Amino acid sequence: MKYYAYYNLGAIWVKAGEGSFSVGEEDGNYVFTVKANNLPVLNRLYRLQTNHQATMTKDLKPVSLTASVVENKNWSDEKYTYKEGRIHRHIKSNVYPEGKDTVYAHTPCSWDIINAVYIARNKDLRSVPMGQQIPFYLNFNDSTHTVYGQVLKRERITNKEGQEFDCLKCTVTTAPGTIFSDDKLTYFWVTDCPRQIPVLVESHISIGSIKIFLYDYKEGEITKKTPALSQSQ
């Protein structure tokens, strides 16, 4: 799945970056890869480059996560490994140039933020009562954080290319320590079908607000533009 990100500058929205989600397989496990970066023209305003790769077993248990992030003048390379109810974290960054190792216990049925996206997509959101809170347990920064999602309503939305989608409008709280504003909700729309493909995300970040639109996706060797999503409803 490929996305464009738009940043709010006053009364206008400017294309600011792009990202992708992909699913692979290695040693019998799922491998989820997420990449995102801002457009080079905006580097003076805000520089962001991320590369995450999360591994999860076929019965949806987390195995590991590697994350490489550059945000303005800050950088970090991290690895999380799940072993016997504990997470082993190794980080090197501008704060810890020599590296730092920590081990901590995590809440059962908790995931890193990348795996959590696919956990949410595996939950049948269409059968969840509107407004019911759904807890998710996220592991990062040496602890487990609880966030809550909700399905708000069914809604038809239109993307930047004028394509329409029948969606479930959802929201999720954010956790401290991310680029998202702690006191603001993040809204997202997923297709109202079994695949529950995210087609739009709206959120406040530390320097403003963003919208992230799906513009194409691939299944196997077949690339499908976003109109096919609307036709699949």
Describe, in plain words, how this protein is organized in 3D.
This protein is mainly beta. The chain has one domain. It has helices at residues 113-122, 227-231, and strands spanning 2-9, 12-26, 29-38, 48-56, 62-71, 74-83, 86-93, 100-105, 134-140, 143-158, 164-172, 186-191, 198-205, 208-219, 222-225. The protein is globular and about 50 Å long.
Structural shape: globular
Distance between the termini: 18 Å
Tell me the helix content: under 10%
Based on helices, strands and strand pairing, what is the structural class?
A: mainly beta
Please count the beta strands (DSSP E, at least 2 residues each): 15
How large is the radius of gyration?
Answer: 18 Å
Present the secondary structure layout.
Elements: E1 2-9, E2 12-26, E3 29-38, E4 48-56, E5 62-71, E6 74-83, E7 86-93, E8 100-105, H1 113-122, E9 134-140, E10 143-158, E11 164-172, E12 186-191, E13 198-205, E14 208-219, E15 222-225, H2 227-231
Antiparallel strand pairs: 1-2, 1-14, 2-3, 3-4, 4-5, 5-6, 6-7, 7-8, 9-10, 10-11, 11-12, 12-13, 13-14, 14-15
